[in-house]
Here is the input.
Amino acid sequence: MDDIHDIYLCQLSETVSCGACCGLYNLPNLSREKLEILLSNRTKDFESVPRTEDGIFEFQRRNKAPHRLSRPFPQFHHCPFLGLIGGEKWCVGCLLHPAMPGNNGVDYRSLSWYGEMACRTYFCPTTKKLPGVYQSILIVVIDNWYDFGLIVTEHSLLTAYFKEVESRLGRRIAASDYTQNFLAKSAFKEFAELKSKWPYRRHDAPGPCNFFFENGLYPRPDVFRATPDIRLSPYENILRELDSGFSSAKEIEAADQLLDDLFLKAERALM
Ligand code: SF4
Ligand code: SF4
Here is the structure.
């Protein structure tokens, strides 16, 4: 039985945290650089906001307007209270949280769109569905909030990855396989980065953002194939979870080769 909720995935360190369920990535033309600038400006702006209902609602109005009509998942929020937190502002977090400097211990999340209760108690499907050992590996390996938040919600993709690695090794893996193993870490990091760098994302995909709420609103479609001669892949699950689309048989060959190479790296590192 895997550990459920034993591992807290939302805030891990000064540099690693997650805001995916607050809609962190639900922005058009997403890139790490753009998101960092947005969060940094918003955090600075919030510092001078009076901690009153009017002050906070005015800040909310200012900050939600630009992306309102162009979110990849229009019925999924992007919370305007996401900002950068921590002494050095190196990770993502909630500007309304009572621990934020300036909030004087007051929890202002009741003024958010989700409401304080949902903000405090929600846990994404990964926390229950991704086996504890794979959660631990994520924590050991991913060292920055941007990549962490993009991959952490992808429990099916992560499970498919680690199952393939285990099948090649002929054994189960453990977090200790990764702790002092630079090459294994690097192989997994490369895989995780496919979330933002995948070259075979189908043209109408919503970008790297994942809608993981399991309410049927935005189901992930099967792999898109422009012509009937494009064969199935041995990595069909992974391709689907990466929102793939292929315009030719040659393209799917290349995608399989890319994944083969990544798995070979992991296999060699963990043998
Ligand atoms: S998406 Fe999951 S891991 Fe990320 S903050 Fe929400 S509950 Fe935590
Ligand atoms: S107010 Fe709620 S939804 Fe918004 S950033 Fe804070 S925790 Fe996330």
Remarks:
- The chain is about 45% helix and 5% strand.
- The first strand starts at residue 82 and ends at 85.
- The two ends are 26 Å apart (CA to CA).
- The pocket of iron/sulfur cluster (ligand 1) is lined by residues 9-10, 18-21, 122-124, 126-127, 152-153 (CB under 6 Å).
